[in-house]
Design a protein that fits this description.
The structure holds two protein chains of two kinds. Chain A is an alpha/beta fold. In chain A, 46% of the residues lie in helices and 13% in strands. Chain B is an all-alpha fold. The chains are: A alpha/beta, B mainly alpha. Chain A: Keywords: Signal.
Chain lengths: 446, 310
């Protein structure tokens, strides 16, 4: 008898522990009364490792402004990497609770969209944040698959440009930066001598390689995805990769150490003042450049928009100066504070806040009038132009896999780059593998 | 210590009777807290992983994951065509190589710090440095040193050796793992050495044993249990090490260092194929568990049976 009692007690205790644990997992949704007072809005945002103190101060000032306007508090939660963010989104999607507003990278927006966990922006929603027309039209390019199904609200843009060393170019007798890829290769050869190199490229970066491949291909008229078909095994992509690898393997206009460089390392190499061009950078690099040996001797320029092997863009080619790059804001569908969330989005996309954010962190405004007010800045002109000439990468849930497959082509080819020219057959084998995984990702896309 | 053997013998019949009673009425409920935790932390997630490996769970079905379509063993067949066997081979070979290489280093280090001498504490502390450094720090530092224009190539006077991609990447992984993991074997071996009875040293001295026979025939048998256990734990740790390859090589990793945790990670968190990656994890669990089981049976890791102590 005693035994049975004990067993019952044990079972009860077990169930209680289990319930307690499960409740603890459930999160804490505190829904307050009317108005914003007493409510808390949770915002997930990328940590700023470059300027952590300024970033904390910015969060504080936004919190204060939001409190003054709505009575509610903003609680910022930061993530260190894209992967952290993804994990957070996954757990929030599964459990149906978590941050109310997410700041996500543009290329991640299609993946986020495919989870169906974010508010689709209708006329009402756009009105709540001050209207769709307040944004630079190009930035809306990756908000959703079409105009009626948009989830991403443009927040900041970081269009890609190249930086060049004005003194080295002048010394080499180059009047103005290249506008075609072939011209760039030519100039890079002129610039390479002794310990000086034509280009700084981050071959080992986990994201850079696919941006080159996509950009050159789309300029040649192949956007890589055609409906449900992947078009990676294609002469345009082949040419893109052979140009990209060729700079190091054939033309030898890049420091051989670049096979180990990530983007910040390539930036550091360029900042030493011994390199003509640094391809694929953006305004956030300004401070590092101003602190390096190139201080006062550099300028931004638009990346070439004529595909390699051509002197003018083909008829179906797109003038893509950059991928549509930056951050979008997403409002969670499960959020109990949607109105507050839109208030927040409105606040941070207003010109004043956008300009302040640009001045602190170098991210360009997505707000059209704020962007316009920067047009007078000479140094910035190429970047604002790139912002307007940015083209969205294909909007499909499979994009993550496609960019992974393209990056993998570079990763697996790296060891051969220092050995000499890369053959067409080599690239083709790797592209075939990439095509296979891209196509299977597209087949699964819903 | 040895005199303690007798008293338990005397009370043996009494103990026998008590054990008989407790065997019928063992207070099993005392296991409840541990049992509940085991269920919550191990069994439920394992069952979930098994279930997820049978459904088509990806970014499209994540939101309503309970309704994700059941696809039987399709994830398993796909995992074999997605390079899983290649990754398992790399993981296992890397883990075994690292363990085999760290054992002599660990034992040698333990022997060196066994006898007291001036500064022994300092040496012991230094030996533990690789073990206390977070894996992330270790791999970041090595990554920096092994850059094409990094310090290692500068010292070797060769600017073109690639350590982090190409054929050497695998050996880089093994080397850095050895550097970071040997103190674990060292600690276990040291613990084993500490438990060698003083009399044993005296007896071998009386018998006039020189250092090598003494080490080989007397001391090392004492270490067999702890070191075999350390080998097992270390191998499992190597197989499970994600931070090191992730920080050293980034994702996607070069093919020849695409170890199992990296493959599962990329499948899960970059391709968002949760079902497929769960299947991969289950297959690897089974493939690793079989030799593990055989190993456990073969070496019988009951430390207290070893060396005739107590």
């Amino acid at each position: 008898m005693l035994n049975r009692k004990i067993r019952t007690a044990a079972a009860l205790a077990g169930v209680t522990v289990l319930t307690a644990a499960l409740t603890a997992c459930g999160g804490d949704d505190d829904s307050g009364g009317g108005g914003g007072a007493g409510k808390t809005l949770n915002v997930l945002i990328g940590a700023n490792t470059q300027f952590p103190e300024q970033f904390a101060a910015w969060q504080k000032s936004i919190s204060d402004k939001f409190k003054a306007a709505t009575g509610a508090t903003v609680k910022f939660e930061t993530f260190a990497s894209a992967n952290d963010e993804l994990t957070k989104i996954q757990t929030s999607v599964v459990s149906g609770s978590g941050p109310d507003v997410y700041a996500v990278g543009t290329t991640f927006t299609p993946t986020a969209y495919s989870t169906g966990a974010f508010v689709k922006m209708g006329d009402d929603e756009w009105k709540k944040i001050g209207g769709k027309e307040k944004f630079n039209p190009a930035t809306l390019g990756i908000s959703g698959p079409d105009d009626n199904n948009q989830v991403g609200i443009p927040w900041v843009s970081r269009p890609f440009v190249m930086a060049y060393n004005t003194e080295l170019l002048k010394a080499a007798g180059i009047a103005k930066p290249a506008t075609t890829w072939d011209e760039l290769t030519q100039q890079a050869k002129q610039l390479t001598k002794g310990d000086q190199y034509g280009l700084a490229i981050a071959y080992k970066d986990n994201f850079d390689p696919w941006k080159f491949a996509w950009g050159m291909s789309v300029q040649a008229g192949n956007p890589l995805v055609d409906g449900k078909t992947a078009k990676l095994q294609d002469p345009a992509v082949q040419k893109a990769f052979s140009t990209y690898f060729g700079w190091l393997a054939t033309d030898k206009v890049v420091d051989p150490a670049a096979v180990g460089w990530t983007n910040p390392q390539a930036l550091a190499a360029f900042a030493k003042g011994k390199t003509g061009y640094f391809l694929l950078t953006t305004t956030t690099a300004t401070n590092s450049l101003e602190q390096g040996a190139v201080k006062g001797k550099w300028a931004f320029a638009l990346l070439p928009t004529v595909p390699p092997g051509a002197t003018s863009r083909p008829a179906n080619g797109v003038e893509a100066a950059s991928i549509l790059s930056g951050d979008n804001l997403l409002v969670a569908d499960y959020s109990k504070n949607k109105d507050l969330a839109f208030e927040y989005v409105k606040l941070v996309t207003d010109p004043e806040v956008q300009l302040d954010y640009y001045q602190k962190f170098g991210n360009l405004p997505a707000n059209a009038s704020a962007l316009q007010s920067l047009a007078s800045d000479q140094r910035l002109a190429p970047v604002t132009e790139a912002a307007q000439k940015s083209v969205a990468t294909p909007f499909t849930g499979a994009w993550g896999d496609i960019q992974l497959a393209l990056t993998n082509v570079a990763v697996q080819t790296l060891p051969d780059l220092t050995k000499g020219p890369i053959s067409t057959a080599q690239i083709d084998t790797r592209l075939a593998a990439a095509q296979k995984s891209a196509q299977s990702a597209l087949d699964r896309a819903k | 210590m040895t005199t303690l053997i007798r008293p338990p013998d005397k009370t043996a019949p009494k103990q026998q009777r008590r054990r008989g009673v407790t065997e019928r009425q063992r207070p099993l409920w005392l296991l409840t807290p541990g049992g509940v935790l085991m269920i919550l932390i191990v069994l439920i997630p394992l069952a979930l992983a098994l279930w997820i490996s049978l459904i088509d769970l990806d970014q499209y079905s994540l939101r309503r994951w309970i309704e994700a379509p059941f696809i039987g063993f399709a994830n398993y067949t796909e995992s074999f065509s997605s390079g899983l066997l290649h990754s398992i081979w790399i993981s296992v070979s890397f883990a075994v190589l690292s363990t085999v290489a760290t054992v002599p280093i660990g034992i040698a280090a333990a022997l060196v710090t066994q006898n007291a001498y001036r500064g022994r504490g300092l040496v012991r502390a230094i030996f533990l440095i690789p073990y206390v450094l977070p894996s992330f720090v270790v791999s970041t530092v090595w990554r920096t040193m092994l850059q094409p224009d990094g310090i290692v190539n500068k010292v070797l006077g060769d600017g073109s050796t690639l350590w982090l991609s190409g054929p050497r990447a695998y050996w880089t992984l093994v080397l850095v793992e050895i550097w970071a993991a040997w103190p674990f074997i060292y600690l276990m071996a040291l613990a084993g050495l500490q438990s060698v009875d003083h009399e044993v040293h005296e007896a071998s001295a009386v018998d006039g044993a020189t250092w090598w026979p003494k080490l080989y025939k007397v001391i090392l048998p004492y270490l067999r249990g702890p070191v075999l256990l350390a080998c097992l734990l270390a191998t499992l740790n190597h197989i499970n090490n994600f931070t090191l390859p992730f920080v050293l090589f980034g994702a996607p990793a070069p093919d020849n260092v695409n170890v199992m945790p990296m493959l599962v990670y990329v499948t899960s968190f970059q391709s968002l194929r949760f079902g497929l990656s769960a299947a991969m994890a289950v297959v690897s669990l089974i493939l690793v568990a079989i030799p593990l089981f055989i190993y456990l049976r073969a070496v019988r890791l009951d430390v207290h049976d070893e060396g005739g102590r107590r």
